[in-house]
Amino acid sequence: MTVARGGPTTHVASIDDAVHELRARGLRVSAARRLVLEALFAADSPLSAKRIADGLGGTIPRSDVASVYRNLETFEGLGLVRHVHLGHGPSLYALAQTHGREYLVCESCDSVQACEPAQLDGVRAAVHLASGYEARFDHFPIVGRCASCRAADGE
Amino acid sequence: MTVARGGPTTHVASIDDAVHELRARGLRVSAARRLVLEALFAADSPLSAKRIADGLGGTIPRSDVASVYRNLETFEGLGLVRHVHLGHGPSLYALAQTHGREYLVCESCDSVQACEPAQLDGVRAAVHLASGYEARFDHFPIVGRCASCRAADGE
DNA sequence: ATACTTGCAAATGATTTGCCAGTGT
DNA sequence: ACACTGGCAAATCATTTGCAAGTAT
User: Fold this and answer.
1) Percent of chain A with pLDDT strictly greater than 70
2) Could you give the domains of chain A?
3) For the segment B83-127, what is each residue's pLDDT rounded down to a tens digit?
């Protein structure tokens, strides 16, 4: 499967940082690339390529989906972007650092809970103990039933 | 997302059991359905719909992909079948009980490790502690780096 | 000037759907 | 008999690729 890893990218906290990063890697800074960055910086949760191409539904000028995919792939290669699969829909993309986050999805109510990696360190330790794996929950989420759904069913 | 849950199906250990189950639910037992069951019972790991339609590559008579998908969906509704996403490829299907299994995937070497749920009970406990969720790793696997890959990188 | 990028169209892969003929019960 | 199913073609969705025209450096 090969999931993008953190990568050597220095922390990019703004579009300008990202732009500098692109130049530093010898990549060109085109309008299409800026638009993808704008969308990602504007979003507070992972976005589909389609939504980025749609300009977040009009907030931002729209661009071509093919280019969006190509640029997202390029950015993933730089370690600037990551993608998650939170369910059966399309892949969702986010800035790698915004998205240091990890996810839990409730199979009953479909709610998505993002959390800081530290919150799942105990889980990581348990996985390591059980299997020797060093786990990450930022590509595939932890699926289960959330506390409220369980309570609702009297568990 | 809504992941198929265990379901009310009684334990089906053979094709005949499954056939009885279908009849008990008022569903017809057609040749196409038998073929899907044959493939699933013959497999030792989850299969793609395409592979089932191909008759496991010639071992079994082939059938129509559309029917395979329809029947897999029907069987999932009965709790007879489940599907997993082990990476970026197509969904993989397996008998629900064969597939009481849960999965770990290494992001470096792409190896897949299936294990009995009990092996991950510690992990489940840790997830519960951290989030209140009751987790399952049979729909999305735990992604991470396996012990050998970590060792190879001197971690 | 020139190589990197884009936009658009067409291709691919996975999965779904419409529809009518076929068949299990 | 009759409703449930299957097969096949066409449709849909997500993503990728080919290629000529456009543009960042």
Assistant:
1) 93
2) 15-98 (1.10.10.10), 102-152 (3.30.1490.190)
3) 999 999 999 999 998 767 999 999 999 999 999 999 999 999 999
Q: Report the C-alpha gap between B130 and A126 in whole angstroms.
A: 12
Q: Which residue has 């661009």 as its token pair?
A: A63
- A130 and B CB contact within 8 Å: yes
Q: Across chain A, which distance is largest between two alpha carbons, in Å?
A: 58
Distance CA(A81)–CA(A37), nearest Å, equals: 10
Closest protein residue to C24 using CA and C1' atoms? B28
> Is A120 close to B130, i.e. CB distance below 8 A?
yes
- Taking the C-alpha atoms of residue B104 and residue A101, their distance in angstroms, rounded to an integer, is 20
CB contacts, 8 Å: B104 with chain A? 127, 131, 133
pTM here? 0.93
Condensed to tens digits (0 to 9), the pLDDT of residues A118-152 reads 999 999 999 999 999 999 999 999 999 999 999 99
Q: Dihedral of the CA atoms A42, A44, A50, A53 (nearest 10)?
A: 0
Does A7 score more than 60 pLDDT? Answer: no
Flag if B132 and A120 touch (Cβ within 8 Å): no
Strand D: list positions under 7 Å from protein Cβ. 4-10, 13-18, 23-25
